[in-house]
Specification:
The protein is α/β, with parallel strands linked by helices. It has 2 domains: 176 residues, Rossmann fold; 149 residues, Rossmann fold. 40% of the residues lie in helices and 18% in strands. The chain has 14 helices and 13 strands. The strands form 2 sheets. The protein has a 7-stranded mixed β-sheet, with helices on both faces. Strand 6, helix 7 and strand 7 form a beta-alpha-beta unit. The longest helix is centred in the first third of the chain and has 16 residues. It is elongated and about 65 Å long.
């Protein structure tokens, strides 16, 4: 059933080039994937998977012809990743795609020889996944978001300040169980100090923690909320958007999917583009390139999306300058 989901995702695309087939006659590559959520669980995840397969197809890799996929999902239980990673190693896959910091760490612990392609992390150097972006140095490479500069988390604080010039206190929604959040929190603290903003940390390890986290934001009179990307938060997207609306606190999210769910505003990476770019990495590694020598790419497509309907519900006026810079305005 899962295999059919993947095939359907790319069935309507154009005929694939046969470069990989001609260069590796008779070779059927085995690609492992360590993820959190199955494509059948979410339309967003299904769309990202379609882009993943399109990226592979652009480089001549066609499922069932010259590669097979071995997907393993934690079902939002990160403690399962070590066992799933070990299973992929036993299957002798040729490359492993790891789609979150816990998945990347589990894959690294399971093998030092099989190439690992990372996605879903913003700080591969700070988290010890690679030695540097330019020269990863081990068996890990891939695509990172939040590399610094314009796409840094501090940009979200600037956007909230532009939305509410009198803003003085911002609540940060974070999952303390996610090891990938620490660098982002530190960057937010530095940015907040520069903007003279006070931060309030809202911790939510599980969905059951969200109600109390937003209650804390209300009690402490937070003037805005910023969410740090997390699989659990994504799964609870509609609920989080509802809680923010109920609390009447302007929230700035990490991707356009949140605005589509009714969120006020997002500034973040284009996830569909990120998944499509994985095809280039897998192609190079399957052709013999060493992960140690393949630079980690930084996200290049960042989008500002604004929901005017939600702004009206919050009695907020979006300034013309902010609207002019938006990549999409949802009416």
């Amino acid at each position: 059933m899962l295999r059919r989901v993947f095939v359907v995702g790319i069935a309507a695309t154009m005929s694939a080039p046969r470069t990989a087939l001609s260069q590796q006659p008779g070779k059927v590559a085995r690609i492992g994937f360590l993820g959190t959520t199955r494509p059948s669980d979410s339309s967003d995840v299904a769309r990202f998977w379609r882009e993943f397969f399109l990226g592979l197809r652009e480089h001549g890799w066609v499922e069932g012809h010259n590669f097979v996929i071995e997907p393993r999902f934690s079902e939002r239980r990160p403690e399962r990743f070590p066992g799933l990673a070990a299973e992929l190693v036993r299957l002798k896959v040729d490359v492993i795609v790891a789609a979150s910091p816990p998945a990347i760490r589990a894959a690294m612990d399971a093998t030092s020889t099989i190439p690992i392609v990372l996605i879903g992390t913003g700080y591969p150097v700070q988290l010890g996944f690679v030695a540097s972006l330019a020269r990863p140095g081990g068996n890990v490479t891939g695509v990172a978001y939040f590399p610094g500069g314009e796409g840094a988390p501090g940009k979200r604080l600037q956007l909230l300040r532009e939305l509410s010039p009198d803003l003085s206190r911002v609540a940060i929604l974070t999952n303390p169980s996610n090891q990938g959040h620490a660098p982002g929190l530190e960057e937010l603290r530095v940015a907040a100090q520069a903007l003279r903003l006070e931060l309030q940390i809202l911790q939510a390890r599980t969905a059951e923690d969200l109600q109390s986290a937003f209650g804390e934001a209300v009690r402490e009179r937070a003037g805005g909320i910023v969410e740090i990307p997390d699989p659990m938060f994504s799964h609870q997207r509609k609920r989080i958007v509802h809680l923010a609306a109920e609390a009447r606190i302007p929230a700035l999210y990490s991707s356009r999917e949140w605005v589509a769910a009714g969120g006020l505003m997002s500034w973040g990476v284009n996830w569909a583009d990120q998944y499509r770019r994985l095809g280039s990495y897998i192609d190079r590694l399957l052709r013999g390139a060493k992960a140690a020598d393949v630079p980690v790419e930084q996200a290049t497509k960042w989008e500002l999306v604004i929901n005017i309907r939600t702004a009206r519900a919050l009695n907020l006026t979006i300034g013309p300058s902010l609207l002019a810079r938006a990549d999409q305005v949802v009416e």
